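Session log. Operator J.P. requested a structure for one protein chain; no other inputs attached. Running the standard single-chain path with token output.
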Amino acid sequence: MINLIITVDYELPADGRGDVRRHILQPASDLLTVCNRHGARLTILAEVGEFMAMERDGNQGFRNALDYDPVALAKHQWIEAVRQGHDVQLHLHPQWIHAQWNGRHWDLDYAHYQLMDFDQNQAVEILRQAKGYLEESIAPATSRYECIGFRAGHWNTHPPDRYLAALLAAGLQSDTSVFKGGYANTSMVTFDYREAYSHYRAWRADRRDINRRSAGRGILEVPIAAVPATLWGMLSFKRVWSALSYLQEDRLNRQKIQERRNPAPNGVKTNRLKKWFQTVPKKLDFCKLTVREMRAITRRIIQDHAGDGEEPVPLVMIGHSKQAGAARALEKYIDLVKHEFAGAIRFGTYSEFIRTYEQFEVHSAHYTR
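Structure written below.
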């Protein structure tokens, strides 16, 4: 049976604009309500950099300007989510690490937009602090909680050998940043997932190449489900509307990054017309896809999985709290799963899948000796 892992990136827009209640707390509450109503499970990928920044003494002015405590409300929501059987794991946009509130808006550290813009020791310490922040916030109220999973901000995992080493050194066990076919090489985003092992199955990542499966005990990569498509084939009103909502945010980020970083690496230039017909990954994203598109991806993966062995199989879905209409879209998909794929898919959390996969590895090792 396939394990559906519904993940939501729990965050403000990447440039720091927005309101915690409107872009994070209320949308996440709506998503949790939908999941509870249907017996599904949500995995919150909490971008803790912004909450750590909000708590720093030097940024007291941000909290004073509000009529509520965003950090206290977020921590309460994490605790209640875990108590209800959901999950909270780690997400991080490094530009928040040294963020400062200037009285009007956040000044983010665009010189460190990617985790590996920090040196190795700094990156490891940042991950340790972020992991510890989640565990200290949640574990006292729910003793079984442990932060074991990570998703890189903007999927930036370059260079992969340093990235994977940092995760391991920080005590993290798994990653869910990869989506097969993904590629970017700009000042803002750098990753290459074109040769990823699978578009949905999990694998132990080679310590030097996150795309390669290894027999070792490295980081367990649990990829975001994605299938090949063309830009032309991905066009829909919902996707265009979603893209427009991100366009200004991305432009502002790109401008600020280019002002703070060294010149961007030269990306691959392509003919604009040809670009529309090149193969690109279509992620299983409940904020960007129509129900018809989500059904097609789900059916394709179920068919691909048919007849496989006992290895646990994830189906990682992604969404963003800041995206309007997220709860309505997710409810349509959950209803679809319950009515059309009930015998092939079960709901679960990220942590549950990691434990199940590790038990499978132990069991398999025992019987292959």
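Operator note: The domain at 2-367 is CATH 3.20.20.370 (TIM Barrel).
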